[in-house]
Amino acid sequence: MTTYLDCNATTPIAPEVAEIVSKYMFEEYGNAGSRTHEFGVRAKQATELARQQVADVVGAGKNEVIFTSGATESNNIAILGLKSWAISQNQKHIVTTKIEHKAVLEPFEVLEKEGFDVTYLDCDESGLISKESLAESLRDDTCLVSIMQVNNETGSIQDISGYCEVLENHTAYFHVDAAQGFGKYSEPLKHSRVDMMSVSGHKLYGPKGIGALIVRRRGFKKVPLQPLMYGGGQERGLRPGTLPVALIAGLGEACSLAYKNSEMWSQHCQSLKDKALSALSEIGIEVNGQNAAPHVLNFSIPEVNSEAAMVALKGIAAVSNGSACTSSSYTPSHVLTAMGLGEERIDSAIRMSWCYQTKELPLEAIVEKIKQYL
User: Fold this and answer.
1) In this model, does residue 59 exceed pLDDT 90?
2) 143 is an active site residue
3) Mean pLDDT, rounded, for 135-153
4) Domain of residue 290, CATH code
5) DSSP line for 277-303
6) Is residue 134 located within the same domain as residue 244?
7) With pLDDT > 70 as the criterion, what percentage of the chain qualifies?
8) What average pLDDT does the segment 286-309 reach?
9) Helix and strand element counts for the chain (H, E)
10) Do residues 252 and 268 share a domain?
11) For 93, which DSSP code?
């Protein structure tokens, strides 16, 4: 049986979450906007409980949680939603990094085409963005900084707390794409200087098609976001549309589980990683990215093409060689390229990612199969 090792693309749903989703699909199927009967009331109660459960993970206020379809939509609202305000204030400088997910880079490209000045921060072979480079990039007209927490390809954990220190006395809004780290490594996300963070349900043992944008107030001042869609006024007018109660309840349950168990999950994942590093050292792997999360290992095998390796591992382990969002038309990883890695090392890069539900890694079988290609 193939072992699933592509949890950065999507995680298996937690059984407790699946049970909640099923309940609100088949038994409590009311519309949270219906206020004239008990089905609507219970649906509303379920969404508000979930809103609190999401907020609790990072110590946010329940009224600061906006439900979306996932981190991609959340990123777009956080970035493109500031456009009108930035133009009105003549603050059209925005900052991000070269290793962001396409769901951040592409909205930045849209603003760049519309006259915004974009600074793309570099990284070195470590895959980490220095807080010094952020400090050097800031200008008086900088209105937005967007830096991910955990890189989806390498697992490198960025210095969110350090960036918050740099931004302490600057007015720029700070957005964090927290899709890979929310609920797993949440402590830095509790910092009040993180103005906005994007959440994805299916990266946290929840259902696909649901996420959140957490938008913190500065004192009594709201982040001046404008909606990208109109009609209905749901989610404080920022994200209209009938709320998917079942998915929201599932996200809430996933967040509740993470709030209670993240430390234990992390320890389990680190144990698996230690075993993997020990076993794979036998085939001379080169690890890509430093300060990587316990559940991710990106590595290159000299002289073994990643496509060939993935084919060889079919039936043993489901792995990847990059972001699931760009896998349909393979191009060299923009993340590994930005890190300055050589072409051969990039071509041989494999990403393995697991989770608390992964019992063991089939390391012996992986090593034996790869040895046939050396």
Assistant:
1) yes
2) no
3) 98
4) 3.90.1150.10
5) HHHHGGGT-EE-SSSB-TTEEEEE-TT
6) yes
7) 98
8) 95
9) 12, 12
10) no
11) E
> Is there a single domain that holds both residue 204 and residue 352?
no
155-176 pLDDT, tens digit each: 999 999 999 999 999 999 999 9
Residue type, 153: E
Last residue of a domain, one of 221, 256, 291: 256
- pLDDT, one tens digit per residue, over 340-358 is 999 999 999 999 999 999 9
Tally of structural domains, the chain = 2
Residue with tokens 């949440």: 186
Question: What is the distance between the terminal CA atoms of the chain, rounded to a whole angstrom?
Answer: 25
Boundary of a domain, candidates 256, 274, 297: 256
Which domain does 366 fall in, by range? 3-10+262-371
Task: Identify the band that residue 366 occupies on the pLDDT scale cut at 50, 70 and 90.
Answer: very high
Evaluate whether 153 touches 295 at the Cβ level (below 8 Å). Answer: no
- Which among 308, 307, 312, 311 is positioned nearest to 322, based on CA atoms? 307
From the list 255, 269, 325, 355, the catalytic residue is: 325
Cβ neighbours of 220 (radius 10 Å): 5
